[in-house]
Amino acid sequence: MRKSVQAMIIFIVMIAGCAREPDIKSQSLQGKNMIKLNSDGAAQLGPVDQSVARQAVERIRAKKEIHDAVALNTNKKLLLAYQIKQMSRFRKQQIDQEVAKQLKKQFPDYQIVTSGDLKLFWKTNELRQRMQKDAINERELNQQIEKLKKLSEERT
After folding, report:
1. How confident is the model at residue 122 (pLDDT cuts 50, 70, 90)?
2. Whole-number Å distance between alpha carbons of 4 and 7
3. Cα gap 145→34, rounded to integer Å
4. Where does residue 117 rank: exposed (0-12), middle (13-18), buried (19+ CB within 10 A)?
5. Quick check: helix, strand or coil at residue 82?
6. Beta strands at 66-73 and 77-84: parallel, antiparallel or unpaired
7. Which residue segments constitute the domains of the chain, with CATH numbers given?
């Protein structure tokens, strides 16, 4: 009797502990989905129209070397962070140049910041989610993009 009660309590605790598992963001460096995104990779809500960011994400995701991409834009700036597929990382510098050139050609009126850095991808995704949730104004978005731009220019 006592063992069965203990077994039931352990079972209930395990079930309750595993119930929160879907809320945890996956950040594995291997596997098919490095970070699971529920949207198209561009912020959709907020005072700033994100159609440019959506177009950039669609175009960059079409490249075979790119695993995933996230973008944000203001009226004058476009920030795009992407993940490069595992075996394509040997050509990272070349891919970075191709992506930057392609976006500058497609959006000549925008100041473009691109990065294949995983940390910048995570930060851009956090900012995109915050923008969807809190409806950040353009001034604050510009400031955040500048911070991420400085982070992308940093060398480790």
Report:
1. very high
2. 5
3. 23
4. buried
5. strand
6. antiparallel
7. 28-153 (3.30.300)
What pTM does this model have?
Answer: 0.65
113, 152 in Cβ contact below 8 A? yes
**How many angstroms separate the CA atoms of 33 and 3, rounded?**
41
Q: How long a stretch of residues is the chain?
A: 156
The three-class DSSP label of residue 115 is: strand
Which tens digit of pLDDT belongs to each residue from 78-118? 889 999 988 888 888 899 899 999 999 999 999 988 888 88
Instruction: Count other Cβ atoms within 10 Å, centred on residue 15.
Output: 9
In tens, the pLDDT along 28-52 reads 444 444 444 444 454 444 467 788 8
Alpha helices in 19-91 (DSSP H): 51-61
Q: Which of 68, 103, 101, 99 is nearest to 86 (CA)?
A: 68
Q: What is the DSSP letter of 40?
A: -
